[in-house]
Design goal:
alpha+beta; four-stranded antiparallel beta sheet; 3 helices; 29% helix; binds zinc ion
């Protein structure tokens, strides 16, 4: 069976939009070179640590996931530890895009109501 190791990321920016990124699980370190908001490190052979500069509270949050979970789960949501609001979605492209499409629509609706 062919395993799909493509990982899709959507990181919220300070304006409530999403920065979209994509990479394979084996080249995640490259993301840090391209996007300084996320730092990714291996912890041992099976875990990955994500250090994210939070667009909501402006502090750094840390998340640790097993590589297997990252590959197998449709979507992993990383939230702000202070406010509990989602900051980054990671997972399969279609699922991530479908969630942020809804989120951006909600954000637009709120913006137009104000
Ligand atoms: Zn935060």
């Amino acid at each position: 069976m062919l395993i799909n190791t493509d990982i899709y990321f959507a990181l919220k920016d300070v304006d409530g939009h999403y920065i979209k990124m994509h990479n394979t699980v084996f080249k995640l370190n490259n993301l840090y070179q391209e996007y300084s908001l996320i730092e990714i490190k291996m912890q041992g052979k099976r875990r990955i640590v994500f250090k994210i500069k939070c667009p909501i509270c402006d502090e750094y949050h840390y998340y640790i996931y097993k590589i297997n979970d990252i590959i197998n789960k449709d979507v992993i949501i990383m939230g702000c530890e202070k406010i509990g609001c989602p900051v980054m979605y990671m997972g399969k492209k279609e699922q991530v895009l479908s969630i942020i499409k809804k989120q951006e629509q909600i954000f637009k609706d709120i913006y137009f109501m104000v």
